[in-house]
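Q: Start with the shorter request: fold the first protein.
A: Done. Sequence, then structure:
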Amino acid sequence: MTIDAATSENVVGEDWSTILDICDMVDVAGTTGARECVLAIAKRLPHRNPNVVLRALSLTEALVKNTGRDVQREIASRPFTEVLVKVLQAPDTNGRVKQKIVSLIAHCTDAYASDPLLGYMRDVRDRL
């Protein structure tokens, strides 16, 4: 996958062509592909460069909007959500990153409202 390429610190801005290619690849890769993709994104979230983290969050948002249930389950999972919370609550996290995480959690909560299996994200939003 090209998660590292889409979130690289050498990339200026968001590469939407790569992001949409990732969405397409992950959507057809099934459960294993979804898990690997979300795990790769989770590894990028604690990065020291806020631009890398912002790109990883943009990729996550694109996956929420453009992929199916397998990916959504991985994004709404406890392990991935807890990574978001950990980054959000870290004292040295950039302000724009914090805003983007709160926005992503709110978006996921709305997107997953009709599926009780994806409710952990809602529980976290209510906790924050």
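Q: Next, the second protein, separately.
A: Sequence, then structure:
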Amino acid sequence: MNVRNVVVLGECGVGKSSIINMISGAQTTKTSSNVLGESPVSCRVVVMESGLRVNFWEMKGLPGDVGTAPTRLLRDLKTIVRRLLVFLSIDLLLFCIRAGSVTSAFVQGYQAIYVDVCARKVPIALVINGLEGSSGLDMHGWWAKNKDRLFNRGLAFDIHACVTTLSSDEDPSIREQIKTSQRRLRKLVDLPDYFGLPNHLNESESSISRPPPSGASISFYELSPDDVVVFLVGRTGCGKSSVKRFMVLRSVPMFTQHEAGVSHELDPKPKHINTFKYQHPDGNRRIVLVDTPGFTDPDRDLADDRIRAEITGWLEEACKRDVVVRHILYLYTPAYGPKSLLLRPFWNVYGCTMYSHLTLVETMAGCADSRSQSGSVKAVNNAMTRGGARAVVYEDTKESARSILQHVTNDPRVVARVQLKTVTSDIPGGFMKFSTRRKAATRLQKLVGEHLELLDRARDKSADNAGLHSLQGQLQRQRSEIKQIMDQIGLNPSLVRRITGWLDAVRKG
């Protein structure tokens, strides 16, 4: 029998036990609001109609304002989740909230469990409870209205469900919502895979297939692996507004300054990461410009470490969805050169390959202080360009902005290589149960790297038929060994498909 481990978390009173009851169809789980109980976790086993056995690990309510207990409880919950990862594995983190405001305690629990312990490597779902009586039988309006607010607070989810856990009601419409909720929750825990699916479990096909809304700004959840994602970073006052004006407003005249986040004030307009879509000048690609708050801002709410943490979370969540940053535009002025520390999030995710996707854009070159560029600025520039970065001067014109865009990386082989390295680096981790599996995962990483090198050699020897035939045989043997190792490790089907897909993309590219 297939077994799935689901960890259920949420504050006291949000309906965690009621959600498990609705999935099982029974009323045997005891609900308790005592966060100081002897055991912070209870287990409930439910066998689904498909034959899947689901172990629900229900955690005590996430700590709120109850004196000194929250710190101890949160520490205990982290220990339990860490042990589950090591000895059993976790197939899904199921966070529960009630419709309304999200508390700081919930955010703290999310960061402690999903970010700190699970390192964003485990599928995560959100169940929004208490939506009985909301407009529309699917109750999906709450998520459509609040998903970006949640994301801006650092809360990202792979899938979600809007439900009510009432057992019965006299209102026919609410009774229908109850049936919909049970169907939706059961589907949530019984899904074969949590990647590559619509972000919600709305039964309405028209809602699932709805195209992205028109306009400049788009949600993080509307990104796709085919998008050419370009990050725009720089300190406050470096001229990002001017670059956005020419890249977005002039390319798509229908966008307003407010929609594009363009401001002539010194303080940056965006308080969080914003994404904008528009067509590349060649007309064949969709560019997604990711605008970040300005660094070194006097506003304490925009401290550099907070911005770096937000960028890191964005990049890691994007990698889970196979969305790759194709290029980074780092804007700087002659007086304040680029700093490698501000690029640390990109380095942590993409490693040294980051430099091949980096363009250092000098702005305000005509100002008086442009001649006073310090030796340290030149040294940092030279170090980055030696690593593969490109250095250009932005002349505050539409032509200059378009010239910069023409060099955005769109080679599918480069993108596939970056994602392969990211995906395979996630496998060994500290969550493998046996050392033999850890060794196999490390071997897989090495073998994928060797396979990529062999593909490069095969292209170089394309004119040599004998050598090419030999290399093709080696490539086939390597692919066969890669498949065997993935089977040995027991990777979930979604990860196998991702690795296989990116390998095929490199080969075909």
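Q: Describe the second briefly.
A: The chain has 16 helices and 13 strands. Residues 435-460 form the longest helix (26 residues).
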